[in-house]
Amino acid sequence: FSVKTQSTYEDVLNGKYRVDYETTSSLMVDRPDKMRVERYGLNMNHILTYDGSSITQHNPDDNVYDTEPVPANIEEMFHYIRDTFAISGPSTDLIYKNSYALLSEDVNAASVIGKELIGDIMCDHLLFNRNDGVSFQIWISVNEPYLPYKYVVTDTSTPQLLSYSTILGSWNTAPKVSEASFKFTPGKDSKKTTLLRADQNVQQ
């Protein structure tokens, strides 16, 4: 499938001002072992490709890239890059093949808020609270194919109740894509770098 997203990450600036950071992404997934993500935002412009054996992060602005070996399916790859490189995002929950089981784990309360329009798509608005200090809302289309059109994850363990919100659209459940879309071929001027690992300290 392919989908385009607009994500908003809420933060607190100078300890008192809420500030929102925006990221636009396009995503292609070919289960069980191929993915391409293009992300653009403030101080962010990169492309991640996954071909079933390795991931490559490419920054087109600086023309730098790094390729790392990873496990051979999307779910294990996500776990590996989260633990090894601290690469993750709340909206990746929706990409897992077993996303329902993942999202419903440790839920202690759930509510049907009602029916709402996301753009021009009528959706069921659902709210879930978990024991781990997180609540999430999801808006799923009322008609087939039942797809998510908005997803909000809120940190309920903090007084600010900061959230990460994603609007999803332009869904295509049968896109025509080539194998080359999931591979990265460096140009002659591309520079190889190394991803910083989660357990490394950044020297100032």
Keywords:
12 strands, single chain, mainly beta, 204 residues, globular, 2 helices, 9% helix
Q: Per DSSP, what share of the residues sits in E-state strands of 2 or more residues?
A: over 45%
What gyration radius follows from the Cα positions, in whole Å? 18 Å
- Sketch the topology as an H/E string, one letter per element: EEEEEEHHEEEEEE
| Mean pLDDT metric | 92
Give the total of beta strands.
12
Distance between the termini: 41 Å
Shape: globular
Structural class: mainly beta
Query: Which consecutive residue ranges, at least 5 long each, have pLDDT under 50?
Result: none
Helix content: under 10%
Strand order of the largest sheet: 7-8-9-10-11-1-2-3-4-5-6-12
Give structural notes.
The protein has 204 residues and is mainly beta. It is 9% helix and 50% strand. The chain has two helices and twelve strands, in the order ββββββααββββββ. Strands 7-8-9-10-11-1-2-3-4-5-6-12 form a twelve-stranded mixed beta sheet, with no helix packed on it. The longest helix is centred in the middle third of the chain and has 12 residues, at 74-85. The N and C termini lie far apart (41 Å). The mean pLDDT is 92.
List the helices and strands and how they pair.
Elements lengths: L1 E12 L3 E14 L3 E8 L2 E7 L3 E6 L4 E6 L4 H12 L13 H6 L2 E12 L2 E10 L3 E8 L6 E8 L7 E10 L18 E2 L12
